[in-house]
């Protein structure tokens, strides 16, 4: 029987949320068959089976947050008739190897314990239980060992990942009250999250897109020298059935061509700016799972009907949680049409390395003077935040002027 743990899904993403299991215990799977779908901070990813065989155990529930290296399934690998007939010896199961390693590590630690004069060292056992991602926590795997603690005057051995111990300490969770779901009852991060949800009714751990948004906003707040400029576009020339989002995308493309300084990336470490010739617009999409910002690449090559088709397909993919990592990458400027829900003006948050984000508010009616006569018109409020380290106020104002001119045409 072989154990399969969560692999590294790329881009330094240590955590994933289980979105959906596609197999149950007892199911027979083939190599590369999709067994579950997870959501990282970037996108949803389908995880294939690394072996063919029967699912003997399944670890983690939908909604659980798991780390790289956490046990997912144990598979009783199929042995072909040819292999069985030839008498070829099969490699030892991973579980046996883990047991040997654990025993060896325990003996080494036990030897060190006898040489130690501190009482706490004598009460501690040492067992390495697996690889631990160091992306989220500054923990040396060579220092990971399982200790024993006393609770209610009874000695109780707790086996837990170091990241789970750190998390439990932050959340105020007593590990003695948790039943681990990992191999041999090891307490995982997801077990601590579940205990926290039960301990504090009405609270929940941020997951998926919401977790990613929290990290991105914190990063932006720390790094961006943000300035917001506002303006209004008078929509007297618009038809009654104008597609607002499509017009906004086209207007941003035109403004980027007129003033390209806002269509750029900025690297504060090297103090370099990359001004892009192509326009890749990230379009903020609100969903029940959180905020997603898929990117319409080469938006300057899209016609109006192409933009609308892209929006419809992308929104449908987000609702079905079927959006790939590549669809969220390489944006050069962002659009948020918050006015579709509510709001007139805002201070949108720039997402580094980008240097600008355009926000559109709710269309309002205004009275304006035309040839000395009052006239009611529709006005579209616009808010743009830019990184003042990479853009001058003049460049931002010229961009906004070009944006308004295009919308009013």
TrEMBL record:
CDD domains membership: lipoyl_domain (cd06849)
Domain Peripheral subunit-binding (PSBD): 159-196
A Pfam family per the record: Biotin_lipoyl
Top enzyme class: transferase
Cofactor: (R)-lipoate
Coiled coil, from the record: none
Top-level taxon of the source organism: Bacteria
Keywords recorded for this protein, A-Z: Acyltransferase, Lipoyl, Transferase
Low complexity bias spans: 97-106
Domain Lipoyl-binding residue range list: 1-76
Region (Disordered): 84-125
EC number: 2.3.1.-
Similarity remark: Belongs to the 2-oxoacid dehydrogenase family.
Subunit-level organization: Forms a 24-polypeptide structural core with octahedral symmetry.
Protein name per the record: Dihydrolipoamide acetyltransferase component of pyruvate dehydrogenase complex
